[in-house]
Design goal:
Number of helices: 4
Structural class: mainly alpha
Strand content: under 5%
Radius of gyration: 23 Å
Number of strands: 0
Largest sheet: none
Number of domains: 1
Shape: flat
Low-confidence stretches: none
Helix content: 55-70%
Order of helices and strands: HHHH
Mean pLDDT: 78
Length: about 120
């Protein structure tokens, strides 16, 4: 007698889930996130011109805490949603030319990226 024939539908589903290959979409999303994070380190280390070297007032601890706990995680979500929304926006704006496409890229991806990874802590 075949042991597989006596399995319940739940056991069959569990067995199928164990044999299912990893989702390529999941891998693609994680790769995109990793690639978006790489330039942040280089931008953070970029040298400022001599004009910008005057001391800036430091933000309060409360503003920094609010930025770390609320704004940055929200910004990461906005960046992920904006990256997903950029694909249909690019399809719609591409016939209008490169300027329209760059505007959509700036609005949906680059602006949230700058807010999350390059904006100084506590600077709203």
């Amino acid at each position: 007698m075949n042991p597989k024939a006596s399995e319940t539908p739940i056991e069959k589903s569990i067995d199928l889930m164990r044999r299912r290959p990893k989702s390529s979409a999941r891998v693609a999303i994680l790769t995109l996130i990793a690639l978006l994070m790489l330039p942040a380190q280089g931008l953070a280390q970029a040298k400022k011109p001599a004009d910008d070297l005057e001391p800036q007032p430091s933000p309060s601890i409360l503003a920094s805490a609010f930025d770390i706990v609320i704004l940055r995680p929200f910004g990461v979500v906005v960046l992920a949603v904006g990256s997903a929304m950029f694909v249909p926006a690019a399809i719609v704006t591409a016939p209008g030319g490169r300027d329209n496409l760059e505007g959509a890229l700036d609005f949906f991806v680059l602006s949230p990226y700058r807010d999350v990874f390059t904006r100084p802590l506590g600077d709203f």
